[in-house]
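Budget justification, computational time. The allocation requested in the original proposal was used primarily to generate structure tokens for proteins on the priority list. As evidence of use, we reproduce two of the resulting records. The first is shown immediately below.
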Amino acid sequence: MVVVCAGMIALLMFASCERDYGLDVGDYNSIGTIVYSQHVQPIFTQKCATSGCHNAETAAEDLVMDSWSSLIQGSHHGAMVIPFRPEKSHLIFHVNRNTAIAPVAEPQMPPDKPLSGDEVNFLMRWIREGAKNDFEQVPFEEPRHGRVLVTNQADDEIAVIDVSSNLLMRMVSVGSLDNRVTPPEAPHNIVVDPLRQVYYVNMIVANEIWKFDARENEFLGKLSLGAQRSPAQIALSLDGTKGYVTNFDLTKTHRAVQIFDTQTMQVTDEISDQRMQAPHGITRTPDGGSLWVACQQSDNIAILSVGVDVDDEIEIVKVDSTVPDLATSDYTPKFGPYQLVFTSDGRYAYLTCRFSNEVRVFDTETKELVKIIPVGVNPLILDITPDDRLVYVANRGTGASPSRSVSVINTFTQTEIMKIENVGVEPHGVVVSPTGEYIYVSCENVSSPDEPHHPVEGLNTPGIVAVINAQNEVIKRIEVGAFAAGIAFLPVP
């Protein structure tokens, strides 16, 4: 008897929902608090989750729209809904007909029952408020296995990927200007603090550093570094209280690393040296005792001691014996050191040289070059597996001849053992997950790009993040914002 009554109550409640909150209401502006099952799902049930389209039986494009949980799982192309960002959500692209409010994608859906303008605006409102379910839950609110953060340099966005599902879960705006009418301020790289509570984004065109809360992606403050500083990368002290940022000034006016207080977001000092020309990559040694800086235009490495009284100590290591002690202003670099990574014991440093298409290996105790490893064209950011066994190198290629490969170096033999091909156009950055199970590669996708899976009007060509498994197979390609560049892993706190 109890079961029958419960069933009848549920049936009556469902009927009441259909009668009171279905599409017949017409005026979506009168709805106060949105309840997914009452206000959103009826739109999908009537026009999308139908036979032959997006119900559980047919699941066109592997997309099921018969419930909140199935919708959030997306399609085999990726996420359909980006919470808080309707103008970045593919669901809106396909139902929208007006590029003034959001991009428009082909094919337009539903093909036979197009949504009204009120319905599109209502769905955009639902997403803007967090795309919540009936229990006020926001999708991916508690990522179980961490997140991958990617800078989108041509969109002034940070893409956030959920590691458990490999779905794009957030797009975070960064920068002060509207890049629809002004040039991008260009988030170039990103770093997570040691406590995993905040992350920092360096704006290489705006000459700024932006600070965000790692959990909520909330903007916490910014720091202006001054004209022509061109911040390229940031390293943090072991306790996270100090930040060190390279000034990638190609005019060679500022040959420096600036130091800032991460709490006050103020520059406290700078380390400058005429031998440091266009410093780009900066990496802290595992023991926290020094920073190694890759100086692209002077073909050398600057080693900075880190401490209360020794921040001004600099040791210069030439990338090659042919490099001059002090490069003149008209010196043309032959090697182009770009980025470094250390083995976990700090004994060896691996350095990408973008102009000579090599990774050079240095003994950190003797400061001697011990191996030259040819890789692909224009290698940029690299990373090493937690067991120190493999180094992955993003080979960007050139604008005229973009690469699609990632080199894999065996650290025991100190040789390139393979190139992983067809990763994506112009691989830029690499990050290995803390378990070593996955490798994430940001691909700019700018020169001769791969087009998005559906033609989209009103949207820049997206960058790509490729997911590679431990068998060195590309298992997924995730569309993010335009010009995917810097990349970092944010573990679960």
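The second record produced under the same allocation is shown here.
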Amino acid sequence: MSANHAPVLTAIAFQLSAALENYQMHVDSLSDPWSQRRPYDLVSHAFDEVRMLKGALPELSVLMVELSICHVELMKALWLAGSSRESHDATALQKLREKHRECVAAMRERCVRMFSRQ
């Protein structure tokens, strides 16, 4: 990272950390995205903001791929839980939520390291 770009990238890392926190807050409040259109839209917009900000920080690409996979898996599990109560596996859904939180936390930790070293 060049000296000229360091303040900008530090600011983006700070914004991304805040966006990740906002995104996780919305995901935590989501139970059945297809019966709760407004909360799902908030998750979707928050995730888009995370992806946009991450674009300026290529060193987070691997973590973003992991987060994207977790996001898709969790949204699918929530959809299945909402559409077929009989086959709903609460334990598996909880494990997906925990894995998702871990992905978000890992990405936030990297952001914090980026802006705290400046």
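A brief technical remark on that second record: The mean pLDDT is 87.
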